[in-house]
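Methods: example folding runs. The two proteins below were folded one after another, and each record is reproduced exactly as written to the output file, sequence line first and structure-token line second.
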Amino acid sequence: MQDPQRELPDVVKALTTAPSPDKQLEAIRTYFSDDAGMNHPLCRVKSSRGSRDDSILGIYQWYRIMSPELPLEVVQHVWNKETNTAFVEVVQTFHIFLSPLKPHQTRLVVKVQLRRDPDGLYRIMQQDDFYQPEDVAYLVVPPLAKLILAAKHAGTLASNVNAWAFQTLLGWWRPRAGKGE
């Protein structure tokens, strides 16, 4: 990439929604450094020589094999030129082709650490994917997502009940009414 701020949405689409395996291979080799690392809730690649072709390529290929149609939108992105770090918010509809279950839209934030190579182009040296737990479930076992959402709601209720109890009964972390406005 010459201008990550301008090019990142197209790069994300080239990597994930390439029209053919050859185009995807070309995109992986163009935009990832040879020693890139990757961290995703379901897989991890440690940065090492050849990791792009030995591991990252296979992950992206398997992703497309599992979900041949992958509607994807880059909602927003930002690149910090001083730290060579970019954040990309993506909404995608991943659907395992053998699954009888209805596809579900998921949201993730991708952090990419870029490196400027000797040829002057920026390449991805580390990719970190951040999903909410229910969105990971929607990717692999959609019915679990509802259980995860219920557990998160229970956690919210427990937090509020416990905060009230500790504030009321013990006076801990209790704001003074009318102060600090």
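Second run, written to the same file directly after the first:
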Amino acid sequence: MSSNKFEGKIPEIVGKLASLNVLNFSHNKLIGHIPSSFGDLAALESLDLSSNKLVGEIPMQLASLNFLEVLNLSQNQRVGQIPQGKQFNTFLNDSYEGNLGLCGFPLSKRCGPDETLEPPIFHEESDSAFGLDWKFVLMGYGCGMVFGFSAGYIMLTLQKPKWLVQRVQQFGNKLLRILRTYH
């Protein structure tokens, strides 16, 4: 529904479309507020209301959308603090560009002297800088070693492929000669 020259307010009934995954009303002439009923769009993954004339605050109910991956509210006349929590903590500045009245994370504009710019931080127990748990890494190495030793044993026992068996035997003989010279 992008670029269709729609005018007026966004109908509240749109918030009742519970199975809606993508909603794109960008590049129209919509005015008014974002309906708070949009918070009921539980399956919504993408919301693009950019390049309209929408005013007012971003409804706090939108922060409860668990599957929202894409948000574009840019080039409107939004004001107030950007909601925090869940998916809203993952959106970047470009989701809010052109809304000079917005403040709060991720924008550099603070909302007030006592309000913090950073989103709440949730600490997960992790022993790695990349979020990988060392147990999974060890399980991967263990499985690889078991497979490698099994494949090697089978190849050497069956003596196929012959060139590989000969190389391994030559390496083993050289290693034994070196070890004997040191003893």
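Comment on the second run: Residues 116 and 124 are 22 Å apart (CA to CA).
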